[in-house]
Structures are given as C-alpha cells and as structure tokens.
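Figure 3 (text version): structure tokens given as input.
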C-alpha cells in the first residue's frame, strides 16, 4: 500500500456490526449492501453515449490504502479527493461506473436543503441548523471550484433557484424563511407573485430567489472525476460484488463473490441508496420518485432557465437541459418494491404533465422521456457521513435528502479529513450514530 494511514478513532458502539461479523465467520456469501433495482426507464442523460471510464474485472487479490465500494458520483468524488491526498485507492462496483442511481439524477445542485431553515431550527436548534445550511453551501462552492480547477466539462452552469410558496410554507411563512436565511448570511430575495410572474412567468405564487446554484450532467460529472482519479493511479474494478467485510484495528479484509481478498487500510461505503446492512439506519428511509423530460423547446423556456421547486409535500421541481428540454420530477412515495414503483410510471407521468402544465402553461408539457428511481430520505433532510460505529476503519457516505450530489461533495471533504486522521469541525452534525 502507499502512505501509511493514521489509526482512525471513531466512536465505538458495539451493538452495530455484530450481525455482519457473525455472517462473515459463518462463511455465508451475503452482500454487504442491500441490493435494489435503483431505477427504471431511460433518463434524459442516456440519449447521449455513455462517457467512457476505463475499468477491468478484479482477477487477483489486492491491497490498497482505501477501498471505495461504489463507482457512482459519491465514489468518484471520494476517490478523487483521497488520491489527491496521495493515498492508493481501489474503487469497486457491482454493476460498473455510473450504472446505479447516478444516471437517474436530475442534477439540480443546490445548497438549499429539503428541510427549510426555520423548520430545521425548531427541530435541531438554531445553532446546528445554521451549521448544516452553511456547510451545505460550502460543499457546493467546493464542488464548483474543484470541477473548474480540474478542467472537468460536465455542462456545469450557475443557476438561480426559485422556491415557490406551497402547503409547507405559504407566503407569510416563506417570507419568514427568507428573513431567517438573510440573518444567517445567505443572499436570498423574497419575490411577490407579481414579481415572480414578471421575472419567471409563473402566476399566483410568491417565491424565494437564491443565487448561484448549479446544474450539471451527472454522468459527465462522475466520469470526469473518475478519469482524474484514474490518471493518478486509482484502480477501477467492475463488476465486483463485495460479500464480506472483516474490520480490525489494523486493517479491513474484504472478500468478493469470486472469493478474492482485498486488504485495505480503510473502507468507504459509497453505495448510494443501497444501504450497507450494518450501517445505522435510524431516521432513514428509501423513497420512490418519478421524472419526465419534454422534447426540446428552447424558444419556450423561461428567462434565465433557473430552477423551480415547491415548498410543498409532495413537491415538484423543474429545470431545463442545455438542449432545451424541460425536466420535471416529484410525486415521491415511500419505496415498497421496484415492481410496484414501475407500475406507477404511466399514472405518475400523467400527473407530472398536468402539474407542469398548470405551473407553466406556455410549455409543451408532454413527456418525451419518463423514468423513476429510488433515493434516500432522512427525518431532517441531511446526510449521514463518517465512521461506521462498531466497525473500525470503515466509513460511509449516505447522501440522504434531495441534495444528493451536493452531499456527495460534502462526503468527499469530510472523509478525506477523517481517513487522514483529522477532525472535521462539523462531524457531529452528520455522524452515523447521531440521534
């Protein structure tokens, strides 16, 4: 292996990890993550050829400083951050790069988290709520700067975001939310219905306008970071199924379904919404979501092409693509199983078309593409990032909430610090053992 890793000092909770270790010792080949059918239907990004990322099967035992399980956007950002620190990194994925939930992402990269600041302050207290919102903003700024520095072309464009009044925050509560954000240092403007109609073409809704969020192509973004990591020597192996993880104070020994051993100084579970079986899941659940994309109609798009999303439950969100398609998603429901989710595609497609038409009557809202997928939600709309309790040298990045890619960038920042032996000042906000 490369640089010697410092011994991590996670908070140990012996209750976790026991069942997995027993299964390892029994010799049962159980996957270390829950296997799900993460998405159905071709997303708008699949209209273009899949960006190439070189990878090979694992044919022999391996050693590495850090084993990253997952080659989606989280694994890509984490692998790049760790390789930048000089660590030897091995990335494995049971499907292959960008073949999981990343392709289903609609890539509205925002610092605004799902839970309004006023609501989160009541839930967690003002101090913690402010720190979470500010760290989310810092993560997005870091991702924007890092992507530009590395010269990654992923159709990244800064966009304003319009948070529309709804049943979660009616106009008066939305104005109070705007004041809370201004006091916290965020640049945000409360817009009256007249201003929203004049500037965005949407009638009868007030809104909070925030600035410099970002849109991207999720496949190009993931491929760009994996390529940069590979240029530094990161090995990308797929398809590789990890069925065993045996942590100890000195190293972690993983075993593949082919019986090959991987010995690592640390392991990172970057498996998206296929949760590791022994990672604490309190307050987390899996949700199904549905998305449509229209045919290109660039001349009908709204000024500035900003994002729209509703302060409602369930909420609707809207963005445009570089070629003028309109993406509209939402109608979220608790995940039951893939078959039940997929059976709802026609009904949900019609519902999204109707809602989009009411919001933007000047558009052709007929779906040209429709897809659905699973994503993670949490009680507070925040991710879980850090050391896995009871499993030494094991870390997880679970980007729960609607800010998946922003939280992936946050995970890359925090896990780089943790694996190098440092202490992130915000680790208490996202620790896996937190209440």
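Below: residues designed for each position.
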């Amino acid at each position: 292996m490369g640089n010697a890793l410092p011994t991590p000092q996670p908070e140990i909770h012996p209750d976790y990890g026991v069942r997995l270790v027993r299964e390892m010792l029994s010799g049962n080949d159980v996957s270390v993550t829950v296997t799900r059918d993460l998405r159905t239907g071709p997303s708008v990004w699949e209209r273009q050829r899949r960006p190439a990322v070189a990878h090979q099967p694992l044919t022999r035992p391996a050693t590495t400083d850090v084993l990253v399980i997952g080659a989606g956007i989280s694994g890509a950002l984490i692998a790049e951050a760790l390789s930048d620190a000089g660590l030897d990194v091995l990335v494995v994925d049971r499907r292959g790069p960008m073949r999981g939930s990343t392709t289903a992402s609609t890539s509205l990269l925002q610092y605004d988290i799902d839970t309004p600041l006023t609501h989160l302050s009541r839930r967690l207290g003002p101090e913690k709520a402010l720190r979470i919102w500010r760290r989310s903003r810092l993560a997005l700024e870091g991702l924007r700067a890092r992507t530009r520095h590395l010269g990654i072309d992923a159709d990244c464009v800064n966009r304003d975001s319009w948070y529309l009044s709804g049943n979660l925050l009616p106009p008066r509560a939305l104005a109070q939310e705007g004041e809370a954000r201004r006091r916290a240092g965020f640049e945000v403007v409360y817009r009256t219905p007249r201003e929203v109609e004049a500037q965005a073409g949407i009638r009868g809704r007030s809104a909070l306008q925030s600035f410099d969020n970002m849109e991207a192509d999720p496949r190009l973004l993931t491929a760009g970071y994996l390529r940069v990591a590979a240029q530094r020597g990161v090995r990308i192996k797929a398809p590789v199924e990890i069925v065993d993880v045996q942590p100890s104070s000195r190293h972690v020994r993983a075993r593949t379904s082919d019986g090959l051993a991987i010995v690592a100084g640390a392991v990172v579970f970057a498996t998206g919404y296929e949760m590791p079986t022994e990672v604490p899941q309190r307050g987390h659940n899996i949700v199904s979501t549905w998305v449509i994309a229209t045919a290109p109609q660039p001349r009908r798009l709204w000024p500035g092409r900003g994002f729209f999303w509703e302060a409602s439950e369930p909420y609707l969100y809207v963005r445009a693509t570089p070629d003028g398609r309109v993406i509209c998603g939402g109608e979220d429901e608790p995940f039951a199983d893939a078959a039940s989710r997929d059976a709802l595609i026609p009904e949900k497609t019609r519902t999204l078309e109707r809602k989009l038409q009411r919001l933007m009557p000047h558009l052709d809202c007929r779906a040209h593409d429709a897809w659905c997928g699973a994503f993670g939600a949490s009680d507070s709309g925040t991710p879980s990032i850090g050391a896995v309790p009871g499993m030494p040298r094991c870390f997880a990045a679970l980007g729960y909430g609607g800010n998946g890619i922003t939280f992936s960038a946050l995970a890359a920042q925090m896990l780089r610090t943790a694996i190098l032996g440092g202490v992130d000042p915000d680790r208490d906000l996202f620790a896996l053992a937190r209440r």
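The CA atoms of residues 12 and 390 lie 5 Å apart.
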